[in-house]
Amino acid sequence: MNYNWDWSVFFKSTGIGSEIYLDWFVTGLGWTIAIALAAWIIALSLGALLGVMRTMPSRWVSGIATVYVEIFRNVPLLVQLFLWHFLVPDLLPEPLEIWFKQDLNPATSAYLSVVVCLGLFTAARVCEQVRTGIQALPKGQLGAARAMGFRLPQIYRYVLLPQAFRIIIPPLTSEFLNIFKNSSVASLIGLMELLAQTKQTAEFSANLFEAFTLATLIYFTLNMSLMLLMRLVEKKVAVPGLISVGGK
Amino acid sequence: MMDFSAIIPALPGLADGLLMTFQLMVLGVLGGVALGTVLALMRLSHNPLLSKAAGIYVNYFRSIPLLLVITWFYFAVPFLLRAITGEDTPVGAFTSCLVAFMMFEAAYFCEIVRAGIQAIPKGQMGAAQALGMTYGQSMRLIILPQAFRKMTPLLLQQSIILFQDTSLVYTVGLMDFLNAARSRGDIIGQPHEFLIFAGLVYFSVSFIASQLVKLLQKRLAV
């Protein structure tokens, strides 16, 4: 293949200030992590709430959560992102709209949009995991809690949720990894996260194979380390006697 | 206020976009399932080299974003073709994206197919071989037909996800449904209306399809 591999490109100057290309990747990775963590907080808290709602006896309460899940699961992520970034600000009350469009710098407004979008998108998926986790618990748990005289909020807080969350760590891990991967859509509304920085490096330096290889390696390493970390957590918090984790 | 009347004259153009979206999905699913089946057979094979290779493939594609894969292929496929054939081979964005989808989805389909094959009782393979069938024959005639029947709902569910994922070709400027709606909305000056319309169409198609899959799942379960 007549391609001149040049791995030193990452240490070359970008021509902008005193930055080298590697700096771009570091900034990009920083944004990617910042998006993923903030969105995960939204996804986990809202998803837990929705998941509880879906297991409630009230038809209304569970119906609302079902509608939420269906809407957010059946519209492509990118369409949702465009809706949040281009449509929703126009629907806000005027002072907020002006603040979002004029006072914030473009990176901040793009960041807010993508965090809200990814958070709400992933919440629908977390909701389904939480629901499955609660429903997977033995029926006797609910009955026993009732017999102890617990009220419904107490049953969820002290009996169902602590067990359910420990069971669903593996699927929650893959949702967490998905947030990292999905955060790359932010590049399409102009936020310079990892993928956007990679594309920029490829265009500026013309060393596109090196740039894309490095990006691939970063995503890969990130995923593998998070997966290993979560496997440790999973072992640590496994419910004794309920399930066997990682070969007991 | 919103005015959706401009969408009606734009419908033919939007339909073209939707057609491209469906083409990407159908071809992506066919290619993905074919490659995914090969990978699944490799993963289940007793040859450690084959199963390792397939394992690496699946892990690799499952840990990077689809958007990165699309961009990678968009840049790399024409370049690689030039390196292989020695001359400029024009390969459109459509082909690059399609290859990216097939290879990416193959990793996900592989896991579905593998689970499907593993769900078939071991005795089936034994019985096939007792009848004198070779490994290839028993896979092709006995195991795979049953496995595919079992995993049809999952394969369809993954295809619905792929339908939504095709919108990511926006990144290379391919005129799929989302891009058609975005660009028409911008030209006419009503981006919001077109974006909402696009969202509604994606929602209706995926929602109806997933309800049908649920029905099918019930029927197949009997």
Automatic annotation (TrEMBL), chain A:
It comes from the Bacteria. Keywords: Amino-acid transport, Cell membrane, Membrane, Transmembrane, Transmembrane helix, Transport. The chain crosses the membrane at residues 29-53, 65-87, 107-127, 208-230. The lineage of its organism: Bacteria, Pseudomonadati, Pseudomonadota, Gammaproteobacteria, Pseudomonadales. This is Amino acid ABC transporter permease protein. It is a multi-pass membrane protein. It is found in: Cell inner membrane; Cell membrane. One of its GO terms (molecular function) is transmembrane transporter activity. NCBIfam families: HEQRo_perm_3TM. Residues 29-230 form the ABC transmembrane type-1 domain. Signal peptide: none annotated. Its main location: membrane. The keyword Kinase does not apply. It comes from Metapseudomonas resinovorans NBRC 106553. GO terms for cellular component: ATP-binding cassette (ABC) transporter complex. CDD domains: TM_PBP2. Belongs to the binding-protein-dependent transport system permease family. HisMQ subfamily. InterPro entries: AA_ABC_transptr_permease_3TM, ArtM/GltK/GlnP/TcyL/YhdX-like, MetI-like, MetI-like_sf. One of its GO terms (biological process) is amino acid transport.
